[in-house]
Amino acid sequence: MSAAAALTVQALSHAFGPREVLQEIALQLPAGHTLALVGPSGSGKSTLLHLCAGLLTVRAGRVDNGFARTAMLFQQPHLLPWKTVLDNIALGLKARGLRAPQRLAQARAMGEAMGLDALALAQFPGQLSGGMQSRAALARALVLQPDLLLLDEPFSALDIGLREQMHQLLLAEQARRQLAVLMITHDLTEAVALADSVLVLAGSPARICWRLDLALPALQRDDDWVHRQTALLLAQPVVRAAFELPPAKREAARQPAADVTGLQPGQAVLQTPALDTHRCEVPL
Ligand SMILES: Nc1ncnc2c1ncn2[C@@H]1O[C@H](COP(=O)(O)OP(=O)(O)OP(=O)(O)O)[C@@H](O)[C@H]1O
Q1: Does residue 76 form part of some domain?
Q2: 197-202 and 34-38 beta bridge pairing
Q3: Which residues belong to any copy of the ABC transporter domain (predicted)?
Q4: What atom in ligand 1 is closest to the CA of residue 206?
Q5: Using a 6 Å cutoff on CB, does residue 57 contact ligand 1?
Q6: Do 98 and 61 lie in a common domain?
Q7: Could you tell me where the DSSP H helices lie in the chain?
Q8: Domain range for residue 91?
Q9: pTM, rounded to two decimals
Q10: pLDDT digits (tens, 9 = 90+) for 135-161
Q11: Could you tell me if the CB of 30 is within 6 A of ligand 1?
């Protein structure tokens, strides 16, 4: 992977038949960064992720994926029920042409790093809890040493404790190497906990209507910080309108809009420079 590797999306629009879903989307995701896509149901988050993954054909605009290896995690773990957990994790390595002893050793090491012990690795997916299956799915993706990880809400069905464990595993992997992550989530707190930038998609067709840039490294964020930033994000009228929420009543709505960048169609507006705010990098 070159130091300048990035996923770049420019002027991306998409329609399903006559229905326009996305309009003029632009984003850039460099190595080591995390971008979270949030927005109301049906706003086109999965469509955007699938266009980035090459699962849908780009018809208007551009998606340039400069990363050498991309992996994707879906809402469901999609493990093969007739293979052991270890074999599931090793599956992608077989496609890479690794010999059996090598791929099983790498799969075992990654499974263990994800908290799967020898017993769990020897079992079939149906014998594992949902949380263990999610760990296996994450191990199967990470064992391929991707430079870019696309996450389609893989943690949404997990309880709060398991979800936190998965976050820590992901952050540890990111700290180890320059893994870029593009994630969809319905959970604004999760987005603020993990992402360097949160992009809010809304409208019909959807555009990026708001961007929140968070300079504090994810590993240094504590619960108070995450909740404060989430409250500030949720207090923004544009974000509330995106989710069809009534106007905010809480104190957060009266606080200055720290750490947020509102994007009007065609222009970037830096609301209030704050310590944690990056310069807006969305090419419009
Ligand atoms: N293959 C398809 N054919 C036709 N319409 C589609 C297709 N896939 C998605 N859509 C429509 O495109 C719109 C955006 O869907 P998409 O799944 O991208 O939204 P989303 O923001 O990911 O939704 P959710 O948060 O509920 O998962 C929706 O109206 C959906 O019905």
Answers
A1: no
A2: parallel
A3: 7-228
A4: 14
A5: no
A6: no
A7: 45-53, 85-95, 100-113, 118-122, 130-142, 160-176, 188-194, 223-235, 237-242
A8: 82-145
A9: 0.85
A10: 899 999 999 999 999 999 888 877 888
A11: no
**Of the candidate ranges 80-89, 121-130, 225-234, 244-253, the one whose mean pLDDT is the lowest:** 244-253
Residue that is written with structure tokens 């949160």 in the block: 198
Written as one letter, the residue type at 51 is L
Q: In whole angstroms, give the CA distance from residue 174 to residue 195.
A: 12
CA angle 51, 134, 233 (to 5 degrees): 60
Q: Identify the CA nearest to 169 among candidates 130, 129, 218, 213.
A: 218
Same-domain pairing of 108 and 241? no
Residues in the chain, total: 284
What is the residue with the minimal CA distance to atom 27 of ligand 1? Answer: 41
Interface predicted TM-score of the whole assembly (ipTM), two decimals:
0.97
Distances (CA, A) of 58 to 50, 128, 242, 276: 10, 38, 25, 34
Pairing of β 207-213 and β 19-30: unpaired
CA pair distance 216, 32, nearest whole angstrom: 14
Residue 40 CB partners (closer than 8 Å, separation 6+): 202, 242, 243, 244
| CB of 185 shorter than 6 A to ligand 1 | no
CB 222 within 8 A of CB 213: no
C-alpha to C-alpha distances, 71 to 118, 183, 219, nearest whole angstrom: 25, 12, 23
* Overall domain count for the chain: 2
